[in-house]
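Incident log, entry 3
Record: ATP synthase subunit I (152 residues)
Problem: checksum mismatch between cached and fresh output.
Input:
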Amino acid sequence: MTTPAQDAPLVFPSVAFRPVLLLVISAGVTAVALLLTGLNGQLKIGAFFGLGMLLGLLNALLVRRSVANITAKDHPMKSTMALNSASRLAVITVIALVIAFIFRPSGLGVMFGLALFQVLLVAMTALPVWKKLRSGQPEAEAVGTEGRISDE
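Fresh output:
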């Protein structure tokens, strides 16, 4: 008998999250953005773009830390994870919007940097999983019982 999705415990599988590689790629993308915007006389946009990439990396590191803290508890709950995610995303978004508003129109580069970092993060996380699934060797490894989160 199978468990309905809403009753199943939340389990976080091991994920290929490599922050140093993300930092290096983000720095490279920021350098290209600075070059292109500098050639167009809009260097500030490139700088704010890099700041957005940095905010995205900060968010990803905070996600990793919060998942580790919450799953380390004896009885972790989905509601704790949801509240943590919502508050973290709200703070990052408010910071980015304030920067974009104060330094408009160049400050909008922060929003573009955040958006591109999220695409980069998803690609760097999903591609190794996709390759492993295509090779026919599914990842059987999970966080384990300490990685299960209850609905309470």
